[in-house]
Amino acid sequence: MYEIWLTLNILFELGLQYLPAVIGTMLLWLMLFAATRPGVGWRRALLPAVVVGAIATVITFFITPGMTLSSFDDMGYWVDWMNLFFYAAAFGAVAAALAWPIAASLCRKA
Amino acid sequence: MSDKPERLSSTQPADGGRRRFLFGASALPAVAGAGLPTGLALASTPARAALKTAARIVIAGSGLGGLAIASRLARELDGAKITVIDRKEIHNYQPGYTLVGTGIWPVGKVSDRNADLMPQGVDWMREMVAEFDPEADAVVTDRGQRIEYDYLIVATGLHLDYAQIEGMDVAAIGSKGLGSIYPGPDAAEATWRAMDAFRQKGGSALMTLPETFLKCAGAPLKVTFMVADRLKQAGTRDASRIAFHSALDNIFSVPRINDEVLRRWEKLDIPVTFHSKLVAIDIGSRRATMARPEGGRTEIDYDFIHVVPPMRAPDAIVNSPLPWRDGGFAAGSWLEVDPKTLRHRRFPNVFGLGDVNGTGKGKTAATIKKSAPIVAQNLIDVIAGREPSQHFDGYTSCPLLLREGSALLVEFDYNNNLTPSLPMIDPLQDSYFAWVMKYRLLKPAYMAVAKGRV
Ligand SMILES: Cc1cc2nc3c(=O)[nH]c(=O)nc-3n(C[C@H](O)[C@H](O)[C@H](O)COP(=O)(O)OP(=O)(O)OC[C@H]3O[C@@H](n4cnc5c(N)ncnc54)[C@H](O)[C@@H]3O)c2cc1C
Question: Locate the FAD/NAD(P)-binding domain: which residues (chain B) (predicted)?
Answer without folding.
Answer: 56-168
